[in-house]
Design a protein that fits this description.
The protein contains 18 helices and no strands. The chain is mainly alpha-helical. The longest helix has 17 residues. The chain is elongated and about 60 Å long. The termini are far apart.
């Protein structure tokens, strides 16, 4: 905890990173990876969050093994709190690098991998971060072209355990990503369309933003001629759109449908 307290003072993260060529970061990563006490592992992750979220994010992310150690903790740590803490560190670091995420492609792979976590809180952190990244125009094509990203997002919103927040951030990110006709043509798949049907079919109040985002995505996908047949023949999609047009209060979207 003392290291975290020191790092929280303005300018001290730089001092800690410079100490003995970055040994402090390496030690924190080793503790997360190897220590048998869950609280000690969690405190080490917190220290990395304090040191690495700010002006020094790039230096911390570049340290060998740090991102892999945090990612492994998210997916495999035996303690729920530790999994969430490590996911939070990664999400915050990626958010700090949002305008330069192409320089750190490992973040995209890690965030995509976390989407398959069985820990819903970790999935929420990942989708929220991806949504933030997708709001920056320079990142949209990068996200669209990153192998498996669109499929992973679609699956994350399809599970019965997915929360309204997960579906909202997933559909928001997918809407941002579908920024060009060529991307719309390339991104369409059974997995994506099935996920959109899922979001369209939940009519409770908490799901309204996800439902409206899903309609907007379908509208964008259907603007590309090669997609029209796949949309028309996908099980449940047209019926979901009809249901939306019957019951939604959003007149503009109803008109688009």
């Amino acid at each position: 905890m003392a290291i975290g307290g020191i790092a929280s003072m303005h300018g001290n993260s730089t001092v800690l990173l410079g100490h003995a060529e970055g040994v402090v970061v390496d030690v924190m990563a080793r503790i997360i990876r190897d220590d048998t006490e869950s609280e000690i592992r969690r405190n080490a992750a917190r220290n990395l969050r304090i040191i690495g979220c700010g002006n020094e994010t790039g230096r911390v992310a570049s340290r060998k093994g740090v991102l892999d150690t945090l990612s492994n903790s998210v997916m495999n740590d035996s303690c729920f709190g530790n999994r969430v803490e490590s996911a939070d560190v990664l999400a915050r670091m990626a958010s700090c690098m949002r305008s330069d995420i192409t320089s750190y492609p490992a973040f995209l792979g890690i965030l995509s991998n976390i989407l398959s976590s069985s820990t819903i809180a970790c999935v929420e952190l990942s989708v929220r971060t991806i949504d933030l990244l997708s709001s920056i125009p320079e990142n949209q094509v990068v996200l669209a072209e990153y192998q498996g990203m669109i499929q992973a997002l679609a699956r994350a919103a399809s599970y019965d355990s997915s929360t309204p927040s997960i579906r909202e951030h997933v559909t928001s990110a997918l809407l941002n990503i579908s920024c060009e006709p060529q991307i719309c043509e390339n991104m369409i798949s059974v997995v994506l369309l099935t996920s959109l049907v899922k979001s369209l079919s939940i009519f409770d109040f908490e799901n309204r933003r996800a439902r409206e985002n899903a309609v907007r995505i379908v509208v964008k996908l259907s603007s590309v001629s090669p997609n029209k047949t796949r949309i028309a023949h996908h099980d449940g999609l047209l019926n979901s759109l009809v249901q939306f047009s019957m019951f939604s209060q959003n007149q503009q979207l109803k008109n688009d449908v």
